[in-house]
Amino acid sequence: xxxxxxxxxxxxxxxxxxxxxxxxxxxxxxxxxxxxxxxxxxxxxxxxxxxxxxxxxxxxxxxxxxxxxxxxxxxxxxxxxxxxx
Length: 85
What we know:
With about 80 residues, the protein is mainly beta. The protein is built from one helix and six strands; from the N terminus they run E-E-E-E-E-E-H. The longest helix is centred in the last third of the chain and has 6 residues, at about 70-75.
């Protein structure tokens, strides 16, 4: 799903969701920068930084106060290592 800023500009796409131990969404991983997935990096946004709504056609819209520049300068998200068994 595309993530848009308050100016309705696309600033990235949701690539993954991180669930906490209680089963709630803790973070949303957004791919920013690049073109057609090349040169893209993932950054983590806390779930409360996103707003979800439906438009007049019933399609989901996801917005954030974050800017494209702030996401591009944010540290890249790295998946935790494999679980120890």
